[in-house]
Task: structure prediction
Amino acid sequence: MRAGELLRKHDEVLAELREKQPSGLLRFGCPDDYAVVFLPYLLQGVTSLSPRVQVHVTCAPTPRLHELLARGAVDLALVSVTDDPAFGDVIRREQLVWVAQRGGGAASLDPLPLALGAPDALDHLLPRRVLEAAGRAYRVAYACCSLTGLIGMARSGQAVNVLTRTAVPEDLQILAPDQELPDLPSIGITLAFDRDEPTELTAAFAAHVRKLLPTA
Result:
């Protein structure tokens, strides 16, 4: 389906839902870094659907969100996927970057001290793979599911982080390739659902996300 046709269908879905004025609870999940950057824009669209919609947001790494979806604990979630052209449902792509304290020396240490996310999440697995492929010694000094904790570790100057570029705070430094760190891949962002046939409310919010997220 062409992009223009997708947008037209999204507009039709949203217009129909506004007329119906749906109500109910929408349970939405997303990782911490997506919540910080995208959630304010995405939630603004909920009131355009209906003021009677209540939203419950759960922030967790992608592997935990899949577990919640499987249990029916959330209705839909923004999740990370490998940026593979074979995966056709990527809504947005985000570049992973090395991040550290401005002027700090953590990137020059050997082995490289890392502060990474959940051990089974892409922002943990992918940096380790590229470092191993490049022959760069490293150690995981800090692993945490909390974006706040990871950023705090970077600010301490004790470790290098890996974040999506849009989630990097202004007081931290994105490390340049000339600091002997290998290039990181980008990751894709898509939507996952708790069922094959989502409710009207869930489908309407998903349409809103698909339309807004590429430009947020």
